[in-house]
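To the wet lab folks,

You asked to see what we're planning to order before we commit. Fair enough. Below is the target structure as tokens, and below that is the sequence we designed to fit it. If anything looks off to you, flag it before the synthesis order goes out.
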């Protein structure tokens, strides 16, 4: 089969590989549509997870099941399915402890385009099919379905990590597709005021649709100072970090009230340490929690998040700004995601209806 792969750090292209084998609990699928993720960019061009040779990229897509193992109960060839970016081993001790995303080791629930070939291929392998796949509802398009692999679950996980409560004032740093889903998630959780940080006009407009009430550009000076000015010096109850860099934690801690929580889902692609400001962190005693996490993955969560879309509570259509038709556009879509033109939120490549 053909797949679009990371050949080594900084270099990508089409390769030929054997079609993956299907174990007793697994499925082999063929993608119906795939989306490019900023994480593909960190992996390929920044080498953020280290060197990989001839590893097929991609972890966002929806698919048709082609083959299932003899122990798979709930899926069969021909089923159209949602596929999460994170596919834990559900019988692992880590999953039993509540950390499915770390099943088998830190971040090891993230398998596609990390420890095994990803979804930018004619066929891809899904471990633990009953635990990880979900049926694609008829009223969700294949393009929107791609957003359910990673953007929705990750953006919403930022909201979970920041523990947003009714009436909270929430700062969302970064309003690319992940941060936009954090804005949407914070609104669904009952935030009163949502301050969004970003500059791409298309993202600002989408953030407003998803419920952002105030806007800040990180290019207009320190974020925390702007937030404190907007909140009479009080700061916010919660911060979701979905963009920025290692120094963004300084802004987040400074903008947060004592007792507040930070949820980071940003992928820190370089550097050895992050900085926490001593005084703003209450000289170590400010009860300002910093949580960073990979989203949990798995079928139940995927079904629940998809039900928000099916029920009309979450509109994913603003996210897919660039939709292509056919495998030949994968590379173009990938480069688009790397270069982030001002009108881009998310590129998607449709492969079948
Ligand atoms: P984008 O690049 O599309 O968006 C990043 C956002 O951050 C933009 O709004 C950008 O503003 C803003 N930004 C850039 N620089 C700064 C800065 N210095 N300070 C504050 N804001 C800044 O990324 P995505 O939404 O696609 O992804 C966000 C992050 O989440 C990525 O690092 C990605 O790898 C990671 N990720 C993590 C996952 C997880 O499971 N934890 C899964 C998927 C993604 P502007 O409008 O100016 O561009
Ligand atoms: Zn992704």
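Sequence we intend to order:
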């Amino acid at each position: 089969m053909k797949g679009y792969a990371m050949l080594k750090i900084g270099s990508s292209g089409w390769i030929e590989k054997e079609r993956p084998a299907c174990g007793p609990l697994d499925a082999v699928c063929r993608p119906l549509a795939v989306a490019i993720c900023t994480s593909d960019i960190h992996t390929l061009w920044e080498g953020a997870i280290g060197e990989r040779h001839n590893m097929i990229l991609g972890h966002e897509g929806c698919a048709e099941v082609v083959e299932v193992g003899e122990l798979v109960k709930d899926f069969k060839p021909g089923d159209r399915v949602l596929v999460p970016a994170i596919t834990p081993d559900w019988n692992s001790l880590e999953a039993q402890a509540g950390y499915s995303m770390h099943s088998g080791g830190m971040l090891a629930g993230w398998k596609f385009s990390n420890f095994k070939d990803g979804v930018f291929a004619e066929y891809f392998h899904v471990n633990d099919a009953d635990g990880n796949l979900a049926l694609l509802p008829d009223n969700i398009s294949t393009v929107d379905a791609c957003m359910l692999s990673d953007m929705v679950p990750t953006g919403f996980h930022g909201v979970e990590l920041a523990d947003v409560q009714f009436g909270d004032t929430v700062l969302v740093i970064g309003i690319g597709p992940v941060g936009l889903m954090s804005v949407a998630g914070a609104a669904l959780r009952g935030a009163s005021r949502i301050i969004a940080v970003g500059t791409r006009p298309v993202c600002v407009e989408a953030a407003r649709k998803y419920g952002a009430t105030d806007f800040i550009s990180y290019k207009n000076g320190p974020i925390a100072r702007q937030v404190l000015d907007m909140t009479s010096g009080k700061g916010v109850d919660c911060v979701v970090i979905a963009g920025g860099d290692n120094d963004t934690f300084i802004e987040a801690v400074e903008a947060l009230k004592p007792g507040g929580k930070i949820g980071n889902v940003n992928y820190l692609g370089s550097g050895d340490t992050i900085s926490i400001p001593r005084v703003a962190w209450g000289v170590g005693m400010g009860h300002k929690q910093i949580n960073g996490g990979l989203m949990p993955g798995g079928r139940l969560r995927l079904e629940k998040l998809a039900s928000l879309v099916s029920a009309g509570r979450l509109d994913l259509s603003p996210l897919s700004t660039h939709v292509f038709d056919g495998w030949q556009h994968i590379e173009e879509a990938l480069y688009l995601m790397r270069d982030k033109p001002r009108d881009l939120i998310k590129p998607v490549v449709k492969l079948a209806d």
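Structural context that might help your review: The longest strand covers residues 27-35. The radius of gyration is 20 Å.

Thanks,
Computational group
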